[in-house]
Please model this.
Amino acid sequence: MIQKVLAGETETFHELIRPYERSVYLMALSLLRNEAEAEDAAQEAIIKGYRNLGKFRAEARFSTWLITIVLNEARARLRRKQPGLTDSIDDTSEDSPVPAQLTDWREIPSETLERQEVRSLIRRALDALPIAYREVFVLRELEDHNVQETADTLGITTASVKMRLHRARMMLQKQLAPQLKSAVPVSRRRFPWF
Amino acid sequence: MVLNCRHVWDYISGYLDNTLDATTRAHVEEHLAHCEICSAILDSTRNILILTADDRVFELPLGYSERLHARLTQAMLEVPPPEPAASS
Model:
């Protein structure tokens, strides 16, 4: 499809990007935390992708290339809004977040996501992660990129990807486990037919 | 090697991703078999990751795709089509 676009069949670009529309928006949203701005950044990134398609190298995955463009677009917007904004992330630090220590956990089924309240809890917890952890978490857990792809996209080492992902997971567990336990009482966590 | 709870917490991601070596994994499992708190941390983390990755958590704004393609169509009219980069 890329060759077709470059050969002049520009309309094919619409089909080329269709599978990645959601990923591009999610990546922008995870950084910008504002739906309207994320949509604008996603559109801008796709247009940049079109303009620069000739620079795409076949050895990279198209999805990774496109995600890198939107990541840069969202980072640039963040810098414009908050020029001094940086996370002071130390990947070599030994300190890991202490998880929430519960004495039991009854599984919360995915059906509870039908409730707006539960979806909001999860979105807020993700928004509360430091940007550097959020980027890694979204790429690994939501976009299903592997460790190497995530490292390449973010320009960090695979060791940093693993460390940041672990810390992000522990931070989410610490915040969400008690909240979800309260929001979804035991009686409502079981399927009625069991 | 006997692992305490803090060691096990450090290994939880490796355990979930199945990247621990066999010996460490066996030590973690040995600890989990006897530690209610660490078992709950592992189960809740796994559960939270499944919930977080669900498409329902982040829904696309209504009309997002239509607006995206409309803007792309407009941009295609305004800029020359992309060309292959000159090979060096």
